[in-house]
Automatic annotation (TrEMBL):
InterPro entries linked to this entry: MFS, MFS_dom, MFS_trans_sf, Proton-linked_MCT
Membrane-spanning residues: 45-65, 77-96, 102-124, 136-154, 166-185, 218-237, 282-302, 308-331, 374-394
Taxonomy, superkingdom: Bacteria
Coiled-coil boundaries: none
SUPFAM superfamilies: MFS general substrate transporter
Database matches in Pfam families: MFS_1 (PF07690)
Limits of the Major facilitator superfamily (MFS) profile domain: 7-396
GO molecular function: transmembrane transporter activity
PROSITE patterns for the chain: MFS
Residues spanning the signal sequence: none
Protein name stated in the entry: MFS transporter
Keyword Methyltransferase: no
């Protein structure tokens, strides 16, 4: 097992590519939607629907992208992804009609599977060896500024450029900055295959290594927990401003929601400084708890502005932890072997639920009302707590504890 550490320059460079990747391929979209919808004579909700469909397509391909990162090296895959992302952005910019735009948008989300967090985490593991967990936390802290930078940057560019020209600029940024960085990382990383020495699971308060008979069960629980987190996060974030208005907060709701980004970054900073000794399974439970807890606080205190502030802070802290453990928990539970493929399935689970969640919450609010729908969402979020807690219980079992019981039942 390697004890090397990813070079600081490589980590900062990778963080820059994550800011650009999330900024150009994801966060810029909401700023440009009104102009896109106007040009194509399409309702804005249909443009967002096209994004949801594209996210589903990207989620389908995420496990394959992860296997390729294992087989060929994440740096090589990300180099290809940078070129593919630039080509997809150009295709969006040149799309003559709705169908070609949607196809280009799907190509963009396919490319994102090669360049965003799931690929970047694999690159860190391949370059950084046994110290990868802390480096993943650092990366999420750096990349947490993507929305802070690219929302205003996209708006500023759009004052002088059309949405098509903005996408062309973003394509150039991906080629000029991200592609060379990823090509450099390809030379630093090494191939991880079936024969690679796995990083052992962390031994801590959550328990020890997972018995072979429990690996599939733990993997499914992990996917379920992340899918539930993705559902809760996506459903609330897409509707956050309208929700605060519907709950009687008025214009104060818009101001309160600006605390989400700083809270998300703060959770990553706190974890970086103080969370090193805590097992990732416990971090997963804490992150999963903060999301429904924030909703309960909001519902219990509405229309209090102080309660809304507490909700946004709790929700931001939970979101920040969720992004970290999405990369570190599979590493802790299963080690380095086939890490990319497992991370691809985590990405797929999150993207599937995230793509469906806004529509599901909108339908629930139309049928049940705002407050009952939020209580239901909080209840769904609590299932995520149960999923991650079950992993802790399984890990606490001695490796041979369940064998006699199985034999007895078989008789």
């Amino acid at each position: 097992m390697s004890d090397r550490k990813i070079p600081a320059a490589a980590l900062w460079a990778l963080g820059l590519t994550q800011i650009i990747g999330y900024g150009t391929l994801y966060y810029s979209f909401s700023i440009l939607v009104p102009s896109i919808a106007l040009e194509f004579a399409w309702p804005e909700q249909w443009v967002f629907g096209a994004l949801s469909a594209s996210l589903l397509v990207g989620g389908l391909f995420a496990p394959t992208a992860g296997r390729w990162a294992d087989r060929f090296g994440a740096g090589r895959v990300m180099t290809f992804g940078s070129a593919a992302a630039a080509a997809a952005l150009v295709a969006c910019a040149l799309a003559p009609g709705r169908v070609t735009f949607v196809l280009a948008l799907m190509a963009m989300e396919l490319a994102s599977a090669f360049v965003l967090y799931s690929a970047a985490f694999v690159a860190i593991v391949q370059v950084g060896g046994a110290r990868a967990q802390r480096s993943i936390t650092h990366l999420t802290l750096i990349a947490g500024f993507a929305s802070t930078l690219f929302w205003p940057l996209t708006a500023a560019l759009h004052e002088y450029l059309t949405w098509r020209e903005v996408y062309l600029v973003f394509a150039g940024i991906n080629v000029a900055i991200c592609l060379p960085i990823h090509a450099w990382l390809a030379r630093l990383s090494h191939r991880t295959d079936e024969s690679a020495s796995p990083i052992p699971a962390a031994i801590g308060p959550a328990g020890g290594a997972i018995a072979p008979r429990d690996r599939s069960r733990v993997f499914l629980l992990m996917l379920g927990g992340f899918a539930i987190e993705g559902f809760v996060l996506s459903s609330i974030l897409v509707h956050m401003v309208p929700l605060t208005t519907a709950l009687g907060l008025g214009s104060a709701g818009l101001v309160v929601t600006t605390l989400f980004g700083p809270s998300q970054v703060a959770s990553r900073l706190i974890n970086m400084l103080f969370g090193g000794r805590l097992a990732q399974t416990w971090l997963a439970v804490i992150g999963a708890t903060l999301l429904p807890l924030g909703l309960v606080v909001l519902l219990a205190t509405t229309p209090s502005v102080a309660g809304a502030i507490a909700f946004v802070i709790l929700f931001g802290l939970g979101s920040g932890l969720a992004s970290i453990v999405g990369g570190t928990l599979p590493l802790e539970l299963f080690g380095r072997e086939r890490y990319g493929a497992r991370l691809g399935w985590v990405t797929a689970a999150r993207q599937f639920s995230s793509a469906l969640a806004p529509f599901a919450l909108a339908m629930a609010m139309a049928g049940m009302g705002v407050q009952p729908s939020l209580w239901l969402t909080a209840a769904v979020g609590m299932l995520g707590i149960l999923a991650f807690s079950a992993i802790i219980l399984i890990r606490r079992q001695p490796l041979g504890a369940a064998i006699p019981l199985v034999n007895a039942n078989s008789r």
